[in-house]
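We modelled the chain as a single entity of 168 amino acids. Its sequence is:
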Amino acid sequence: MILASSRGNALYFWAKSTEDAVKRLIYLSSAVRLATRDDLAQILGAARRNNRRDGVTGLLMYHDGTFLQILEGEETAVDRVFERIARNDLHRGVQSLPSSQVHERLFADWTMAFARPDAFCVDDDLGAKAFVAVRQDLDRIEASDKRAATFVRRFFSTFRDLGSLTGR
């Protein structure tokens, strides 16, 4: 999902896949420069292709120069994706949290969506999950993984006027 706030852009990515046991990895990083809509579209396209190919699902958020990503999948696939991400020169200061082994994916059925700061509506060219739905899904995420939900909530807290847009 790509979102634009009053100060910048935000990118969310979800793909679909299932397995019995998965590795979940969370990381934060800083963009080397503020991303444009074209930059985010390129990142989104590459993430969509690569993660689908590798069977990795998750959540990718970008806002005002900061990335937060949660990766889920088979252990070697997640490790391979994260190594590729860490080498990418679009960002720096990649900080990963200790990974965890889980039995279900938090983001298995999520796709991509786009919202503009003036309308917060779905753009069918990029996907189907609206911005507000991400916020509404936080209780489900928290029931399964409090740590992941905490990072998503904290990331959302960086958006100005988020409460007035979502009613929370």
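As a brief sanity check on the tokenised model: The two ends are 20 Å apart (CA to CA). The CA atoms of residues 4 and 118 lie 9 Å apart.
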